[in-house]
Design brief:
heterodimer, A: mainly alpha, 9 helices, about 70% helix, disordered N terminus, B: alpha+beta, 13-stranded mixed sheet, eight-stranded antiparallel sheet, elongated
């Protein structure tokens, strides 16, 4: 997907009249970024907000792979619309709005219904999730999570690492540790519960 | 409407199913029902999913790091081309890389008005000029020398640039490029001016000037000396009292700053000496015994070597009795043709001798101490050290001559399976202990960033690393001092088994290995099955350090 993107973007831009001449002989090939001010600013803002935006999309679209795809699409639109002379005051809120439309787009186009909430649910969640994303709550929760992960017994940390390794599934993790898939489901549920309680407690106690 | 306890339990169950991506359509409907009916459920849902999202991101490619380093890197031209290997994993990384590529492509093709800053081309590299050198002499030896410099003290064997040498005590044997040598005795203040000229404002020295170096000049506080061959002594003391003694040949004396401009004020010949004290001067008889010769220095150096050898030999004998010593290679050999590296741990109770391949015997930390020299892709010592360990300490005396390869191996396990150890030095001078993790988990690499500085090249260093399974910590040491601490990432036992010193054989059937041979010399290696503490490592270093 990575190699296709530049072409897609270029075409889109050409179609929208954003490029008014053919690529010149001295155009640099993709990968040699001259580092314009606009690019730097956008990337900085985007990267600062990436996790918040991901959490937002994932709340609306619980399926991991779908959420990733949607965020990727949304990021291109964000780049497209970004005006470095007038950057949005609240990048998070702006990014969430764009992501929301991409979520709707996705559900319109998606052939297989994975997890797909009804419109009422989406509307309700969009509001709450955007609010969450915008506040410090989300950052605090993330920081608390790091601390809570360290408090887990090594066996649990190991299981999490295996389950969330790239390309891993619950089945593959279960095979590695030599337990049944069911047992691993239960263990993961317990771990998530423990983490959730720990994070909530950390926030209540005012520890970041 | 508040959520009942059983409804809350149900909600949890539904969320688990959602997180595991096993939720049925019915479950999704039920979830919607609960969330839409109860604000508490909605809040819980949102918080729970943000936890799920964070967990994902936490393990998949560590995007926090990615985000930070990417934002640094993407403002540099041409840094986007290839993401660093760490970023192979993680959707976040792919997302960011893809976005970055798109951004860069767009920027590249944007119409460029004249006043837009499109980035700076690196300045055209100058055609490299022939390298020049401004050193004037070499410090041949300095037995027992104590230097008083603000900068790093001069290294024995190092070329010297013009400048001052402040010798607090001991002796220094300096060879100028023109062939003249000076043996300086501390305390002394000596300035190297050029290949043919020096200055002494304090101290004692013996200068030897062969015919090729005739005209070598030393400037004293109140006179200039020009040697016409071959040997003289100079003493400069309190109140600029200067004494010149000619042991052989002829020395011309000039007034200060008047060397070689016109005839000398006075000429001294073999057996003549002159002491100048303020305005008065008087003849003196030379006392050559007062001035150290090269031979004296060599004898001093040998004494120092003998002392060190004695200390080390005693320490090494003691070490052999440590029951936690799994393998100990003192690199001793009676014959230069032996191709076995003998393991002396625990008085050879269960020797794990190594097989030497390619590497040749060479001088180790001092004359008389043997070591093995590694310099080609073939050079290695094959060892087999069985056992799985909760904790290990690895230690070695090495002289790294260059960091030629991306990684220079100290010891590397052959089969890269869970628990295997790799101990190596990265090209930037980072000490690395790599531990293979179980499949699908990121391998653990414990670093001491760039601690092996370039001025260590060509010098002997005592490197060690402690993998403390009980305390859950990895510590790197240089010369017995800790230089990094890191927590152990994965709870597992570690091993060496089949391995190589100074190289790496991955055991891959395809036969092409990354080149990781050490460029330099190793003359002692030890492996303990327990974590040594700071004091023990410092002691080991002190017992084994080469003579100054």
């Amino acid at each position: 997907m990575t190699t296709l993107l530049p072409q897609v973007t270029v075409t889109a831009m050409a179609e929208n009249g954003l490029i008014d001449h053919e690529p010149s002989a001295d155009a640099r090939p993709p990968g040699e970024c001259p580092g314009s001010a606009k690019g730097r600013l956008f990337l900085r803002l985007f990267l600062q907000n990436e996790r918040r935006l991901y959490a937002y999309v994932r709340t609306l679209v619980p399926h991991r792979a779908d959420a990733d795809d949607i965020l990727q699409e949304a990021s291109l639109v964000m780049w497209d619309k970004f005006d470095s002379d007038h950057p949005p005051d609240d990048f998070t809120a702006w990014g969430c709005r764009i992501s929301y439309f991409k979520v709707l787009d996705f559900f319109k186009k998606a052939q297989r219904a994975r997890v797909r909430f009804c419109q009422a649910m989406l509307d309700r969640l969009a509001e709450t999730a955007a609010e969450q994303a915008g506040t410090l709550q989300l950052d605090d929760r993330r920081d608390a999570l790091a601390g809570c992960l360290e408090k887990l017994p090594p066996r649990d940390q190991d299981l999490l690492a295996r389950r969330f390794a790239p390309g891993a599934t619950t089945r593959s993790a279960a095979e590695q540790v030599g337990r049944s898939v069911d047992a691993v489901y239960k263990a993961l549920a317990k771990i998530r519960q423990a983490l959730f309680d720990c994070v909530t407690k950390s926030l209540a106690e005012g520890h970041a | 409407m508040t959520l009942r306890d059983d409804e809350f339990g149900e909600l949890r169950g539904l969320l688990d199913a959602l997180a595991e991506e096993t939720a049925t359509a019915d479950q999704v409907r039920r979830l919607e029902e609960l969330v839409l009916a109860h604000p508490e459920a909605e809040a819980f849902y949102v918080q729970y999913m943000s936890l799920v999202a964070d967990l994902d991101r936490h393990f998949a490619g560590k995007p926090g790091q990615v985000a930070r380093s990417l934002s640094d890197r993407l403002v540099e031209p041409a840094a986007v081309a290839a993401p660093r290997p760490r970023w192979r994993f993680g959707i976040a990384a792919a997302l960011v890389a893809g976005l970055a590529a798109a951004v860069c492509a767009a920027i590249a093709l944007w119409p460029r008005p004249a006043n837009v800053d499109v980035g700076v081309d690196p300045a055209q590299a100058q055609a490299p000029a022939e390298p020049t050198d401004d050193t004037v002499a070499i410090l041949l030896q300095a037995p027992g020398a104590v230097w008083n410099d603000d900068d790093t003290p001069p290294r024995v064997g190092a070329p010297l640039k013009p400048g001052w040498l402040h010798l607090t005590s001991g002796a220094a044997h300096i060879e100028f490029y023109n062939g003249a040598t000076v043996i300086l005795q501390g305390p002394a203040e000596f300035e190297l001016i050029s290949r043919t000229r020096a200055r002494c404002t304090w101290g004692k020295l013996r200068a030897t000037v062969p015919p090729q170096a005739q005209g070598f000049a030393i400037l004293a506080p109140n006179m200039d000396l020009v040697d016409r061959g071959t040997e003289f002594g100079l003493k400069v003391g309190e109140g600029e009292k200067t004494e010149v003694q000619v042991f052989h040949g002829k020395v011309d004396l000039y007034d200060k700053d008047k060397a070689d401009s016109g005839p000398p004020k006075k000429a001294l010949r073999t057996g003549q000496g002159l002491r100048v004290d303020g305005a008065s001067s008087k003849s003196v008889k030379p006392t050559p015994a007062e001035f150290l010769t090269a031979r004296d220095l060599a004898e001093q150096a040998q004494k120092a070597i003998d002392a060190r050898t004695a200390v080390w030999t005693a320490a090494s004998a003691g070490l052999r009795r440590d029951p936690s010593l799994v393998a100990y290679y003192p690199f001793e050999t009676a014959q230069s043709w032996t191709r076995t590296l003998s393991d002396e741990a625990r008085e050879r109770a269960q020797p794990r001798d190594g097989a030497i391949v390619g590497a040749n015997w060479a001088e180790g930390r001092w004359p008389g101490k043997r070591g093995l020299e590694f310099k080609r892709v073939s050079d290695r010592v094959r060892v087999t050290i069985p056992g799985d360990y909760e904790s290990v300490t690895l230690a070695a005396w090495v002289r790294v001559d260059a960091l030629t390869n991306q990684n220079s191996s100290l010891i590397m396990a052959e089969k890269w399976v869970a628990g295997a150890l790799h101990w190596q030095i990265g090209r930037e001078g980072t000490l690395i202990l790599g531990v293979r993790s179980p499949t699908n988990v990121n391998n653990a690499h414990y670093h001491a960033e760039e601690v092996f500085k370039p001025d260590r090249l060509g010098r002997w260093s005592f490197l060690s690393v402690v993998y403390d399974g009980a305390a859950g910590r990895v510590t790197h040491y240089i010369d017995g001092r800790p230089v990094s601490h890191e927590p152990i990432l994965i709870d597992q036992k570690v091993h060496i088994r089949d391995a190589e010193l100074g190289n790496w054989n991955s055991g891959a059937s395809k036969g092409k290995d990354p080149i990781r041979f050490l460029t330099g010399c190793m003359d002692e290696f030890m492996m303990f099955s327990r974590p040594l503490d700071d004091g023990e490592l410092e002691r080991l270093c002190e017992q084994g350090r080469p003579p100054a």
